[in-house]
Write a structure and sequence with these properties.
CATH superfamily of chain A: Electron Transport, Fmn-binding Protein, Chain A
Number of domains of chain B: 4
Order of helices and strands of chain A: HEEEHEHEHHEE
Number of strands of chain A: 7
Structural class of chain B: alpha+beta
Oligomer: heterodimer
Largest interface: A-B, 26 and 27 residues
Strand order of the largest sheet of chain B: 14-21-20-16-17-18-19-15
Number of helices of chain B: 25
Strand content of chain B: 15-25%
Number of helices of chain A: 5
Largest sheet of chain B: 8 strands, mixed
Shape of chain B: globular
Structural class of chain A: alpha+beta
């Protein structure tokens, strides 16, 4: 069944099982891809990552907050073609701070405890992604979309 | 890695590499049984081919196009056909090819062999793959032997084997296949022996036919059957067979030939021979320590044991499993020829007579009581023919598949469905109907006054000759407002037909199957040329059978529709009388009773409802099904959930439905593409789409609930993908 709840469940499992995502931003129309360690809220509305403010990705997001993230279960094996799933998250992203940041950062560090020092560095930004649409690919070419209510 | 092993090299620990059949033959050989010389091409060789040709992931991708459990059998057959083509078309790694050629040449030279499957999964406790994988009899020459080894490998992925493995919960990705290449002993008589009957432990069974055992195993030659008392070794009974024919080895392959009466009047075995065969089975049972199911043959007075497997597996597996059904998925040429005679000679004419007889009854003149009886009678008639449809017409579709199999084996085409091009452009009944609608639409296109009278509903006064032609059409094919498969959706009006005619008339005419005749001729020539001169007659006969099978795949629904519409007409008359407040009725209770108690439900899968609710929204983007008609088209979806949805069908829309019902095909000339839930290359919708050259994707599980009328669709009939929406985020 391709109902909302089963798609949510598949997405939750995929996003919690993966540590890294490919972030897509752009600079004056030039696409730019980079790797981030991410975490996701249970309701799938928010994703988080940490980045030094000096990076291209952060600069790009400062200029245009629109972005996409790609999360995949592929293991760089031949079987990936029929076994792996991928989710593209489309939305916008920006740095957060204050109490909102503390709660989310603690959740983030539960998933990535080895990044504590990095994440708490004053030069790093804690970025919140506001997910608008999930595009889930499985069985090689089967694609379903989940559009979150604004 | 041991690619090829001889009997003396196979030990008990080799089971995962050689499979049960080779293991048992090796053991029998060591124990001194008379068995034909053989060698085993191990599962290592199979794996070397898979890895060398890069097929492992290609097979898995094919099988994971969607969840196997969501695939109908016809889709699984399609997958199996594509996988089989991978095996036929990909070259063997040079080392493996050299090893196989050398072994076949050294051991057998030009002598005839049988190439049999020996999959390690086979004959495991609780399962029996007997008959699910392929064997090839009377193969000569190293090239042909190696070619048939590939075909046995491919049979690991046959539809029946895939279904059975799924039922047993075996992982298709881990399956392997070993092959036994065994010298052919073409005996005078052959058969099977159950040293212990699967159903009666105190008895043994012997079955025998003249000629090759394959005739018995395929069910084409009825065997004589003897029951033996195990305790006393005494014959209990003999059930003689009708013996008009036998399967024999010819120059290449096998052939069914007539058996002269002076031979056919006698059983293939004497009583002494029956007991000797039983003794052979018993000897194998004692050797293996369990009752055996053995195949044997007698040549020159000597008994040969061809293979032996435990009886228990077959008996255990028969409880509650579907193997018998999976086996019935494949029918032999002989079986299909007999079926064709029955269908074309008896059933179709009888069906036409039945429909005409029903149409000749003036329902309006019947009393309520007689009408109630007539409804019941028509229900029974319809029910009888629906049963014939399932029992004989559906299995006859295997003629198309058998032909496809042979075509692909001979020509190894790029496209495993190239063979369908040879079957199209036959005189399908639905195309004939569409041509007649096209002619009516053509009149409307040329004469605006007809369009006006159709819109106003006064053609009877203003264009009586056109109205007459329209009524002639309705008399022959129904008014198109009734879904023939259910008979419950008739609206009793010509509105859908009128709307479709007006829509057709507003556009240039569409043509089915134009300009492809030359291509058919070329394909036909290539097919026939692939056979040696001596076998062209057989090839032509197979092509003719496949065309008959293809034609019936379409016509049967139209024929059944004629009966169903007569039932629907009687039901409609009954409902009309009841709706008119009993004004006409002297016995409305009889009518009420029959309408309440008979089930007029559809035999088709119910169409889905829109799947979406408030809040977060799920939307399909790319839906994967089976590529069933090549081409790409873009257009707005027209989702047909009930028959009445058809009447708004506009030119250039994409027909999205649960299953293309034969009474739906009149909109196909207007459509840009066809998408349906029911999967398969050879289902009605795919056949009609190909006739009109339309892209077609079948087997999208929730097509009618995920797609909405008006959605922009791109139908990729090459890859079997339907893309929804424009792609904007």
């Amino acid at each position: 069944m391709e109902d909302k709840e089963s798609i949510r469940q598949v997405l939750r499992e995929l996003l919690s099982s993966q540590k890294l995502a490919v972030l897509s931003t752009h600079h004056s129309g030039q696409p730019y891809a980079s790797l981030v360690a991410f975490a996701c809220s249970d309701d799938l509305r928010y994703l988080y990552f940490v980045t030094p403010r000096t990076t291209r990705k952060f600069g790009n997001l400062t200029n245009d907050c629109r972005m996409a993230l790609l999360v995949t279960s592929s293991a760089n094996q031949e079987v990936d073609f029929h076994e792996a799933m991928a989710a593209t998250v489309v939305g916008s992203a920006g740095e957060i701070s204050g109490p909102e940041k503390e709660v989310a950062l603690n959740r983030y560090l539960e998933k990535h405890p080895y990044l504590e020092e990095f994440a708490r560095s004053p030069t790093c930004a804690f970025v919140q992604v506001h997910a608008r649409t999930y595009i889930l690919v499985k069985n090689f070419q089967h694609v379903m979309e989940l559009h979150l209510e604004p | 890695m041991n690619l090829i092993l001889s009997a003396h090299e196979i030990g008990a620990s080799d089971l995962p590499r050689v499979g049960g059949k080779a293991l048992s033959l090796a053991a029998l050989s060591r124990a001194g049984f008379r068995i034909p010389d053989f060698l085993c091409v191990t599962a290592d060789a199979y794996r070397a081919f898979l890895d060398g040709a890069g097929l492992r992931e290609r097979i898995l991708l094919e099988l994971h196009r969607k969840d196997l459990k969501e695939m109908r059998w016809e889709e699984i057959w399609d997958c199996a056909t594509r996988i089989r083509n991978l095996f036929l078309r990909n070259p063997l790694p040079p080392d493996l090819a050299a090893a196989l050629h050398a072994a076949a040449a050294d051991r057998f030279g030009g002598r005839a062999v049988v190439v049999r499957s020996s999959a390690p999964d086979e004959d495991a406790p609780g399962s029996s793959f007997a008959g699910l994988h392929e064997s090839f009899v009377n193969i000569r020459g190293t090239e042909a032997v190696v070619e048939h080894i590939r075909m046995v490998w491919a049979s690991l992925w046959s539809d029946a084997a895939l279904l059975y493995r799924q039922e047993l919960g075996l992982d298709a990705g881990r399956s392997t296949m070993a092959v036994v290449v065994q010298e052919l002993v073409a005996g005078r008589a052959s058969g099977v022996c159950f040293s212990q009957s699967p159903t009666e432990p105190s008895q043994a069974l012997v079955e025998s036919v003249y000629g090759l055992n394959q005739g018995l195993v395929d069910g084409d030659v009825e065997p004589d059957r003897w029951v033996i008392d195990r305790d006393f070794g005494r014959l209990l009974s003999h059930t003689p067979a009708h013996r008009p024919r036998q399967l024999t080895a010819t120059e290449a392959g096998v052939e069914m030939v007539s058996l002269p009466a002076e031979i056919g009047n006698h059983p293939p075995l004497t009583t002494e021979e029956v007991l000797a065969v039983y003794a052979l089975g018993l000897k194998a049972e004692r050797y293996f320590g369990a009752p055996q199911d053995v195949e044997w043959t007698i040549r020159g007075g000597k008994r040969y044991l061809l293979q032996s497997r435990p009886v228990t597996t077959r008996a255990q597996a028969s409880v509650g499993d579907q193997r018998a059904w999976y086996l019935s998925l494949h029918r032999s040429f002989e079986n299909l020829k007999d079926l064709r005679k029955k269908i074309e000679g008896e059933q179709v004419p009888a069906m036409i007579r039945a429909a005409e007889a029903l149409a000749g009854i003036d329902l309006g003149r019947l009393s309520d009581r007689d009408l109630a009886a007539e409804i019941r009678r028509r229900w029974d008639v319809n029910h009888t023919w629906v049963n014939v449809y399932w029992a004989d017409f559906i299995p006859f579709a295997h003629g198309i598949r058998l032909f496809g199999h042979v075509y692909n084996d001979r020509l190894k085409p790029d496209d495993p469905y190239e063979f369908v091009g040879l079957l199209t452009h036959t005189d399908l009944a639905s195309l004939e109907r569409n041509r007649l609608i096209g002619a009516l639409a053509d009149q409307v296109r040329r004469r605006p006054d007809l369009a006006d009278c159709l819109r106003a509903g006064d053609c009877l006064e203003k264009a009586p000759e056109f109205r007459h032609a329209l009524e002639g059409f309705i008399e022959r094919f129904g008014d198109l407002s009734c879904s023939v498969t259910g008979g419950t959706q008739c609206e009793g009006a010509t509105r859908p037909l009128v709307k479709i005619l007006l829509e057709m008339a507003s556009r240039p005419p569409a043509k089915a199957g134009s300009g492809k005749r030359a291509e058919v001729g070329e394909l036909s020539r290539r097919f026939l040329d692939s056979f040696p001169e001596s076998r062209r007659g057989e090839a032509l006969e197979l092509l003719d059978l496949a065309r008959a099978s293809y034609r019936l795949r379409d016509d049967d629904n139209i024929l059944l529709g004629r009966i169903e519409s007569q039932l629907a007409a009687a039901v409609a008359e009954g409902r009309r009388r009841l709706d008119s407040d009993g004004a006409a009725g002297e016995d409305p209770e009889a009518l009420r009773d029959v309408l309440k108690n008979l089930d007029f439900g559809s035999r088709m899968h119910p169409a889905g409802q829109p799947a979406f609710s408030k809040g977060d929204r799920v939307r399909p983007r790319q839906l994967t099904g089976q590529p069933a008609g090549p081409g790409v088209a873009k257009g707005k979806a027209r989702v047909v959930r009930r028959h009445a949805d058809l009447e708004d069908f506009a030119h250039g829309e994409i027909l999205v439905c649960d299953a293309v019902d034969p009474n739906m095909t009149f909109v196909v000339p207007l459509a840009a593409a066809v998408v349906e839930r029911r999967g398969g290359m050879l289902i009605h919708g795919a056949i009609i789409a190909r006739e009109y050259g339309l892209p077609c994707v079948t087997g999208i599980p929730e097509a009618t609930s995920l797609v909405q009328t008006g959605d922009l669709l791109t139908v990729d009939g090459y890859l079997g993908i339907v893309t929804v929406g424009s792609g904007e985020l």
